[in-house]
Every structure is written in structure tokens, then in C-alpha cells.
Amino acid sequence: MEKSFAEAIFVVDDDRGILDSFDAMLGDDYPLVMVDNGAVALNLLNEHRPRLLFLDIKMPGMNGLELLKSIRTNKIPTEVVIVTALPQEHYEEMAHKYGVYRYLKKPLDVDEVEDITRDVLH
Taking Cα atoms as reference points, which of 98, 81, 80, 10 lies closest to residue 48? Predict the structure, then answer.
């Protein structure tokens, strides 16, 4: 049975290793849409509107905070979890300003990612 994009969890990160980590953490239990580009992700989000998105900040082109701002401007009803290695406090403040659901710092804790996913989707 094929799931629609709306039933999938979106993961937006330009690091293939992080995408693979999400596949290992969640791929057996949830359909995933992996995107390595903010602009591509925005096009998909405008059309499919998933309930949960894990989003990196530092990406070439449209970065994660720009994507988050566009998500909110376009009123896309998606819970966004920032996943970043950037320690700067002002990034976290900006993310919260745009209504981020959670702000996680890499390396990721598998239990925390699974708990967030369950909380949002169930």
C-alpha cells in the first residue's frame, strides 16, 4: 500500500548521512520523504502538506530558517522540528519566533526523535 506525501514525514537536510540516519530511526515505521534542498521541499510542502517535518538550518540555497519562514507565511499546517549542529542561540530564537515545534541539536537522540514523532502523529 503506497502512502501519500501528506501521510509521510518530511526530512530536509543536505547531509546524506543525516537522511540515512532518519531512515534508520523511522523508516521501518513511517513513510519518509527525503529532500536535500529547501526550494524543492517548499514546492512539495505547498502541494502535500505533511504533518511533520524535520529540518536542517544550514543548507545551500534556501536555508532552513528561510524555509521555516516560508512555511509559516504560506500557512502550511506542518509541525517543524529543527535539527542542527549550529550552536548559535540566535538561530534557536529565530526558529521559535516562526513557531518551531522543537529545536534539536545534533547528534540526535533516537528516543527523542521517536517520541516527537509519536507525539505529533498519534
Answer: 10
